[in-house]
C-alpha cells in the first residue's frame, strides 16, 4: 500500500490500543506511519490513552460551550479544575502544527457541527472524594480511569469516571483536543471515544531545591505543567549538603542556619500551600530528607551529629563538595528519627523518602566518635547503618507512612530495611532487576534514561575538560525508549510502581527550570502512563504539540526541532 | 607562604597585568590564589582589564552620586548610556557573593568615605563620534581604550577615553564595581586605577534565527547582556534552509514564502531598530546570508535557483533536513549577488558574511542543470563554485563591505576568494593555523571550544541514542581554556581579529535563549578582551558575579555551581 492509499484511509475510524491492562505491546507500525505521515500532529493527546477511537470529521466547540457537572455537592478542587479547563480553552489559542498553521484549516472547519457542552459524570459506587483526597490515597487505592466520548451527532460530549481524580485526568485530555483558527476552536478528528487509565500510579518528577533554591512560584508553575501531562508525583528532594531550606516545626535551627538566606526558606505555610496546590492538580508531594549522607549543612546547627564536616580534600569524603554526613550513632539516629516524625506531620502523602544514597565510608572511618563507638560496641559500619535506617524508617512507619529509600539500602544485604519500602533505582537501569529480585517494590529513575541534568558539563571550578558524571544528555527519545520491564516475569512487573525524571540543580535555578524540564519530562509522563514500548517517530508530532501548547500557557518549553520539522511530521527523522 | 600570610597582604595594593599589548601571559599563580581565596568574588570586573591597581579601602557611592559629562555636545547614545548606567546603579541591588551576603559587609562599610561623581573626559585628538559611529568603523580603526580612576581621598572619580566607545566600555566597568547592602552601594577595594583596552576587536556572538525564530525583543535583551561584558559583534545568521525570516527590499518574496509565518519576519524596520539598538551598546551587527549551501527554503519562492530541493534521503544531500542549495550557475549567482547588494544597504556594518559552509557535492552532481552546465562549459564543481563566490564577494566589495566567509572557502585551494576576506574557523581549532598559513585574517569560533548548542542530544525524531554532532557540552571553562594563539608567530597572531561563541537554534527559541547563552558567552567575552591564558579558578568568582548581576538585570543566566560554592570561592574546585 502506498502512502497515498494509506492517507486516503483517513476517513475511517482507527482504533488504537497502545497498551492494554499492563501489557506493553507497541503501536502497530502501519498505524504509527499513518499517524506520523497523514494526521501529523493533529492527534495530540499526551500521554497516549489506553484505548482510542477517532474519526476524521471536523467539529467545532460552540461559543457558548460549557462544562456541566452532574454531581451533587461537587468538591471545590473539581470546580477549580473545571474553571482552569475553561480558561485554557479560552486562552491557549494554539494553532495546529502544519504548514500554514491555523489558516490551513479554515476551509475544512467551515460549516462543521458544534458541541456546546461536556457533561461530567461520576459513576461506580466509590465514595466521592475531592481530587486532593484521591491523590493522597496510597498508590494502589487510586482510580484515575475515565471515559471520554465526543460524538458528532449534535449531542453533548460526556466524561465519565469513578473518581474526581479520573474526571480531572479526563478534563486534561479534553483540553488537548482543540486548536485555534480565526477565533474558532475545533478538532478534525471527531467522533472520539477514549477509555483510559494509567499503567503505573507513580509518574513522577524529582526536583532538588538544595543545590540552588527554587522559589515557591516556580514550583507551582511546575505543578501546573506536570498536571497537563498527567504526572502524579512530585518527589521533593528538599534539602542536601549545600543548603537546608525546609523550615520544620521544632527544628527551626536547621533552616535558620542552613538556608542560603532568610528568603531562601520554605516555611511551614509554603509547604502547606505547595502540597495543596499540587494535590488539587492530581499531584502527590513525596518529600525526601536525604539521610545519612548528603547532610553536611546540618553541621551549621548541629555539629555534634555530623561526621567529617567540610573535610578536605572533599573528593575523599563526598561525591561533591562539601563533605559531611550524619553520624551512625544513637544520638544522631534519634535526632533524625524525631526529625522525620516532625516532617511526617507536614506532608499528608502516604509516602516519605529517607534518601539513603552515596553513604561515604572514609568519612566515617576517619571520624573519632564513630571509631570509638565501633570499638566500644564491637559493631561495624553496616550494623550501625542498619540501626540508623531502622530508627528513621520506624519513625515514618509509626507516623503511618510508607518509607521510600534509594537502591543502595536495598542492595546491601548486610542491612535490614522495611519490607514495604519503595526503592528508587537511580544509578543505572541494570540495577532494577537486582532490586526486584530482593522482593522490593521499585520506582524507575535510572540515570541512564531519566536524569534531566546529565550532559551539562562538569561544574567544578578548575576542571576544564570535565563532563557531567552521567553524560551524555538524556534526550526525550532516550527516556521514551526505556524498556524497564524487559525480562521481568508478570509477578516481577507488578513490583514496579512507576518511575520519574530527576532534576539535580547544581546548574539549575528558576532561570532554566522550565527549559531543562519541558517538554522532556512529558516523555516520562507517557512512558509511565501508557507503558514502555512506544514508537518515537509516532510520538514526536504529539510531543511537539505538548511543547507548543505549554508555550501558550506560559511554560518556557524548548523546541525539540527546527519549526520546519515540527510542521512536517516525519521529515526530520534520520531515516526520511 | 601560608594562606593566612597571603590573605594578610590584602591591605596592600596589588597590580594586575593579566596581558599586555597583545601578549597573553597568564596571571601569576600567587595572585590567582590570592584573588580566589582572599578576595573571593569582590573583584568582579569582567572581562579582566589590561592593567588594574586595587586597594582594600571601603568606599561608598553617595546618595546624590552623579555622572558628569565634560563634553560639549555629547552624542545622544552616550547620554543614553550614562542614563542606563545610572539606572543599573539604582536597580541592580546585587549583594556580594559571600556567606551572609550584604549583611556581612555592614560593619566594614560603616563610616566609609563617599564619592559623589564620576567625570567623563574625552582625551586625545580623535574626531568626536557617537558610540554608534565608532562601532561601525572597520575593526582596525576602533579605539575602545579607557582609564578609570577611583580615589579614596574624597576627590571625584574620573573616566577618560579617546572615544565615546571607550567611555562606554569604562562605564560598563564602573557598573560592575558596586554592591548593595542595607540601602548603600559600595566597593571594598578602593582606590582603583584601571587602564584598559581589548586584545581583540571582534568579540562576538553568533545567533541563528532560522531554525527557530527569535523575536526582536529577545535579540535586544541579548544585546544588553552582550554589552555588559563588552562583546562587540553580533554575527546574525539570519536565514538558513529551514526558514527565511529576513525581509529584504526588492526580494520580499523570500520572506513572504520562506518565513515560518507572517509574524516570524524581521522587517526592514526591525532590522534598522536592531542595528541601532546594538550600535548604541557598542555592538556591530554583521549579518550572514549563508550561501550557496543552507538555502533550501529559497526554493519556495525561487525554485529555479535551487538544486535538490527536499531530495530524500536528506542525509545524502545536506547536513540536516531539508536538502537544497543554490545552484552554481550564472543566473543563480547573479540573483545572489543582487541579493547581497540589497542586504548591504540594510546593514551599516563594514562587514557582511556570505556563509560558505557545508556545500554538498551529491546535491550538485545529481542536479540536471548543473550537469548540463558543466558539460556545456567544460567547467568542474570548483570552477563554478569559484565563480559563485567571486560574484557574491564582489557585490559586497562594490558596496564597500569586507566579506566574511567560512573556513571551507579558504582551505579549498581550487577556489579564488578575496584576499581581504575574514575567515571564520568553525569546524575545529586545529584548522586555525591552516587558514592563517594561507594568509587570511581569522575569527576563532571552533566547535570544540565555542559552540553553545553542543551536548544537547540528537534532535532527529527517530534517533534514540544520538548525541549532538559536537558533543560534549562546551563548558565556560572549556571556552576559557582555548589557547588559540599557541604556536603562532607574532605576524601570524596579528591575523587573528578575535572570535565568538556560536548558537545554532535547532533546539533553541526565546524559551531557552538566555540560559543557553549566559553566563557562558561571557567566557568568550573575556577570552577575546583579555586574551587567552586566564586561570579558571581565579575567573570563576568573577563569573559568578556576572551571572548573579545578570539575574538582577532580568537575564535568565544559569547558576554555574550550587550557591554554596558561589559563596565560597575555591572550595568547589576539583583540587580543593
CATH architecture of the largest domain in chain A: Alpha-Beta Barrel
Low-confidence stretches of chain A: 1-42
Strands side by side in the biggest sheet of chain A: 10-9-8-17-16-15-14-13
Q: What is the CATH superfamily classification of the largest domain in chain A? A: Glycosidases
First-last Cα distance of chain A? 18 Å
User: Assembly state here?
Assistant: homodimer
Work out the helicity level of chain A. 25-40%
Q: How many distinct folded domains of chain A?
A: 2
What class would the helix/strand composition of chain A place it in? alpha/beta
Strand-residue fraction of chain A? 15-25%
Which chains have the largest interface?
A-B, 74 and 74 residues
CATH topology of the largest domain in chain A: TIM Barrel
Descriptive account of the structure:
The structure is a homodimer of 576-residue chains. By secondary structure, chain A is α/β, with parallel strands linked by helices. In chain A, 35% of the residues lie in helices and 18% in strands. In chain A, strands 10-9-8-17-16-15-14-13 form an eight-stranded parallel β-sheet. In chain A, strands 2-3-5-4-7 form a five-stranded mixed β-barrel. In chain A, helix 2 packs across helix 22, helix 3 (76-91) packs parallel to helix 6 (164-174) and helix 7 (216-228) packs parallel to helix 9. In chain A, 56% of the residues are buried. The model of chain A is unreliable at 1-42 (pLDDT under 50). Chains A and B meet through helix 18, helix 20, helix 22 and helix 23 of A and helix 18, helix 20, helix 22 and helix 23 of B. Chains A, B: Pfam families: Glyco_hydro_20, Glycohydro_20b2. Chains A, B: InterPro entries: Beta_hexosaminidase_sua/sub, GH, Glyco_hydro_20_cat, Hex-like_dom2, HEX_eukaryotic_N. Chains A, B: Residues 200-531 form the Glycoside hydrolase family 20 catalytic domain.
